[in-house]
Structure formats: structure tokens, C-alpha cells
Amino acid sequence: MGILINLIVRLHEAVFGFVDRVTRGWFLELAARFVFASVLLVYFFNSALTKVGPGLFGFLRPSDGAYAQILPTLMEQVSYDTSQIAFFPYGLIVLAGTWAEFILPLLVILGLFTRVASVGMIGFIVVMSFVDITGHGVGAETIGRMFDGNPSSLIADQRLMWIMILLVPALKGGGRVSLDAMLVRSRAARERYT
């Protein structure tokens, strides 16, 4: 029996040791970024488009909808008149939130400043969830509960999965197949020749 267990352990170590060596430093990082892109890029991009003001320079002046989405209780207090909202800090918060929704997902997908962008996206999701719960008053069914046996709640379940996907690049970086890695290789090559 001991020989059989020893054989199984060796076989396990050989197979998964090989898999680990072949995928180390690129596969998990690239897969997490790919899953993020395929599941969330269009979601965040479409959401960001609803926040952009009219015209060519609309990205400099967020729409009324951006204020309603990001600062719903404040918008109610001013009867949805954004001219009554001070730029600092509220307008700046809305502008930064709008830009972040465009920029951070692209940085994660490209693997550029991957760790910072991933942590930024995690923070964005946490704030977005907080605003949905406190500002938009979503119901208990939408919020859900962890360990409730129902994986379909939009906030507790889905957004926890989003954060899990982003934890990989936040902790491991972009990996070898990323712009971060390309910049590091380029810098190392320049230093060798100087």
C-alpha cells in the first residue's frame, strides 16, 4: 500500500510540477486579464459612456446621469440640478469616477501598471457596490448574502467574483505577456547598452 501511495504522490508531483513550470509567470496572469476583458470590459465601457457629457469634449464635463449614478442622494437633494453641485469635491469625484471607468479596465487588459490598475478597479467595484446599496437603495434580493446557496445576487456574489478575478493581477502583476513586462525588458536592454 505504501508503494502505491508513494507512486501516486510522485506521479502527482511530476504532472503538476510540469504544469506549474510551463505556466509560471504568464498563464494565470494572462487568463485573469482575459476573463476580466471578456466578462467586464464591455460592461464598464458601456457604463462609462452613459456618464460622458455631450459633444467632442464631453469627457471633460460628465453628464447629469453621471451625477445621478455616482451621487444619487446629493442629486435628489438639489432636485437633479447639477449646477447647484460644487465642483470640489463632488464634480471632481464624478469626473474621476467617469475617467476611471474608461482608463482602469484598459490598463488591466493591456497589462500596463497592472497592479495599480487592478487595485483601482477593486476599489471602484467596492465604491460602486456601496453606492448601489446606500444611494440607489437596491433590495435585499439584489444585494444577496454570502453562503446563501444562491449564486445569482448581483452584489454579494457577482461582484465578489469580479474582485477575485482582479486579485490575480493585483497580486501577481501582468505576467510575461503584458506591457509591464515589455517595459521591464526594454529598460533592462537599455541599461545593458549604457
What does this structure look like?
- With 194 residues, the chain is an all-alpha fold.
- The protein has one domain (2-192).
- The protein has nine helices and no strands.
- α5 (87-110) crosses α6 (114-134).
- The mean pLDDT is 94.
Short description:
The protein is an all-alpha fold and 194 residues long.
Key attributes of the depicted protein:
194 residues
N-to-C span: 62 Å
How would you characterize the largest beta sheet? Answer: none
Number of domains: 1
Counting helices, strands and paired strands, the structural category is: mainly alpha
Quick one: how many beta strands?
Answer: 0
| Element-by-element helix/strand order | HHHHHHHHH
- Look at the structure and give the mean pLDDT: 94
Q: Kindly state the percentage of residues in helix.
A: over 70%
Question: Roughly how many Å is the radius of gyration?
Answer: 22 Å
**Which parts are unreliable, with pLDDT below 50 for 5 consecutive residues or more?**
none
Q: What amount of the residues lies in strands?
A: under 5%
Count the helices. How many?
9
3D shape = flat
Keywords: Membrane, Transmembrane, Transmembrane helix
Transmembrane segments: 26-45, 87-112, 119-140, 160-184
Organism: Roseibium litorale
Protein name: DoxX family protein
